[in-house]
Amino acid sequence: MTSAISAPGTPPGRARSRLVVPVLAFCGVVVAVMQTLVVPLLPHVPELTGSSAGAAGWLVTVTLLTGAVFTPVLGRVGDMYGKRRVLLASLGVLTLGSVLCAVSSDIGVLIAGRALQGAALAVIPLGISIIRDELPAERVLPSIALMSSTLGIGAAIGLPVAAVVTENFDWHTMFWASAALGLLDVLLVLWIVPESPVRSKGRFDVLGTLGLAGLLVGVLLAITQGSGWGWTSGPTLGLLGGSVAVGLLWGRYELRTRSPIMDLRVSARPAVLLTNIAALFIGFSFYANSLVTAQLVQEPTSTGYGLGASIVVSGLCLLPGGLAMVALSPLSARISATYGPRTALAVAAVIMTLGYLVRFFTSHSLWLIVAGATVVACGTAIAYSALPALVMRAVPVSETGSANGLNTLMRSVGQACCSAVVTAVLARVTFVADGRTAPTLHAYLLIFLIAAGAALAALVATLLLPSDRPGRDTPHDGGGEGGTVAVSPPTSAARGNA
To answer: Is the CB of residue 136 less than 8 Å from the CB of residue 142?
Structure first.
């Protein structure tokens, strides 16, 4: 099997090492596709499953919740017990969840399957950690740029693909396809990806994990369901109040335990804290692009601004942005390597802001809508490559998985906040057109301004970061295990295979 891909005279290990990044990136794209897989199907779920619209909405909400909870937890588990091992477990869970959705039309089973699919979001920070541990230093930045961008690439690709399947095939087909892709990922990782020898010490923090899960579920449930329940309703305020109480107790416990699930002292460093704040706003700004574009072009022409496009056409509007993210990942890595990831993230925030300004003034033409969405995607590609580079500059090598998991979590929280804001704006800024209530054009324009404001907030957080120091790949700040490193040197296995 190995000889088939090895050139004459090329050691099999070297040939395989060249495939590590493509395999990990493919895993990341598959996992990211799961985040938007059911969006085109949502309007039809009540009819197909005999459930309510509220229950159908949980097919998206539960994925967000499990992704948020398991991403930092599995990142920490990978740091302690082996990143490849946890990566395989995550992909196995994704495959199992896909099979559950493929074999049933019961809404409860579908929600359970989607929960398992969401838990696999940890694949992306785990892949970044493996890249840092295994690759030679000169390959790390471009590789993590591609791996990090898969979160946006998969989301952009998932919508049009799911729309095509929904319109032309039985809806279970897309879950069978995702199960097959998950199984393929498992086989590729078993064949290509080595286990990282880098481990963090200590015992797994069970109590801290439960506290973190309770905190995240409470906050995200309040954010995602607050619009429907009412922001001043008992359940919403109760969840928020309970989350504050749990958070305070959890934080106190984490600061006192020897092996916390999340090192709050490291997370509180300005270099880490401000990067995670920027990630939250970047996640918000990016997700608005995905949520609004498809709905805007599908609005009927009777609204005076809608284009009446089909589900497939609306999904295809995001495809150029996804392709642009693939093409830009090497460039974004070069920007980070040449000028520093802080500069790259600042440039990204400016590009995303300009993209929304383009969208603000060009929302009546399909090709201009696509152009504006693509500009935002280009900024996202640069941002998503710079964020893990900033994280890795500020944390010990042994905490790469958990630190990148937290950064991915912050992007997910930003997306959850964006979903709540978009839902509230489109539901409240409405008018009656052709006998039906629809959002006004001003509702969409307001969302563009809010998303541009989020990108500017990310820019402010970025400018407050410690400045990049050209020519220093291993800055030390005296924390962690011997300080922090931007790029770890290759392991002995990597030196032999690279």
So the answer is: no
Q: In sequence order, which residues have a C-beta less than 8 Å from that of residue 50 and are 6 or more positions away?
A: 107
Q: What is the pLDDT of residue 477?
A: 39
Tell me the C-alpha distance between 206 and 61, whole Å: 25
Which letter does DSSP use for residue 304 in this model? S
Q: Are 95 and 183 in contact (CB under 8 A)?
A: yes
Report residue 285: phi and psi, to 5°: -65, -40
Q: Residue 94 is encoded by which pair of tokens?
A: 């994704």
Contact 455, 356 (CB under 8 A): yes
Distance CA 303, CA 295 (A): 13
CA angle 452, 455, 457 (to 5 degrees): 110
SS3 helix, strand, coil % of the chain, rounded to 5?
75, 0, 20
Beta-carbon contacts of residue 358 (< 8 Å; ≥ 6 apart): 368, 371, 372, 375
Q: Which of 130, 149, 125, 129 is nearest to 70 (CA)?
A: 125
Half-sphere exposure of 328 (CA within 13 A, CB side): 29
pTM > 0.85: no
Are the C-beta atoms of residues 130 and 196 closer than 8 Å to each other? yes
Type of residue numbered 63: T
Could you read off the pLDDT of 226-283 as tens digits, one per residue? 877 888 899 999 999 999 999 999 999 988 888 887 888 888 888 899 999 999 999 9
List, as one string, the DSSP characters of 347-399: HHHHHHHHHHHHHHH--S-HHHHHHHHHHHHHHHHHHHHHHHHHHHHHS-GGG
Task: Tell me the three state secondary structure of residue 38.
Answer: coil
Q: Which of 387, 280, 386 is nearest to 331 (CA)?
A: 386
Tell me the three state secondary structure of residue 125: helix
Structure tokens of 302? 């009777």
Running DSSP on this structure, what letter comes out for residue 173?
Answer: H
Question: Is the distance from CB of 161 to CB of 173 less than 8 angstroms?
Answer: no
Q: Per residue in 437-495, pLDDT tens?
A: 888 999 999 999 999 999 999 999 999 998 765 444 433 333 433 333 344 444 434 44
Torsion of CA 369, 375, 380, 383, to 10 degrees: -160
Phi, psi values for residue 328, rounded to 5°: -85, -15
CA dist 442 and 394 (Å) reads 42
